[in-house]
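Researcher: Here's the sequence for the chain we discussed earlier.
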Amino acid sequence: MASEYYIASCVFSTQFPQHSSKIQAYITQRYSMATVRCCIPKYRLRDFEEKMPEEYRSQWKALPDCADFQEGDTVYSLCHNCSNIVEETKKGVNILSLWELIASDERFIFPDYSGLRVTVQDCWRSKERLAEQHAVRKLLHKMGIECVELKDNFGQTDFCGASLYRPQPARNPKLSPQHYVENAKGKFLPHSPEEQKSIMENYCEQFTTEHVICYCHYCLEGLLLGGTKAQHIAHLLFA
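Model: Thanks. This is the structure I predict for it:
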């Protein structure tokens, strides 16, 4: 029998433990779905446990580090690295974003941000995932938010914050070579912190709205580095 899993994401969860905890509670209460930490077993377990604030550490340590994803299983994630790695290492597993799951949930209670006008920032790591991109916009509209599009949006985006201007973790090209080797020509080259900041500042000059919304923690890091008032969509949905 096929199973469903939610990957909570080590990086997102340690950066935003309160929001991650709320999302995990939603996944458990609404869907009784199993939550795991990461897309691969035993990935830097102690490192991320130590980064987790103490009030959330026991909850995080209680989660399974991973699961043995099988053909026919469905895996939901808000981490594009996890989605890409599962896609390339576990054939026959259905990969969907958390945003697609929420967009399909007729019982989800959306907060009201009527009057808010934002630019939507798509992510290079998921540039081919059209269903996820549409789901993000659907969720923003359900929250009463007006969306402004960039010229290089959807599959044309080449942005993932400053993460594309520094070496990537060794596991990514090893486990997901199509995404992080074949499709990453000219990316992940070393740049100094000053160069990264300058690149982000120049990129952010194009925005015509005060607020920018993204759905990737690396994109968020870069947008903030560039001086924008940026938020992750999870912060709006689970405020």
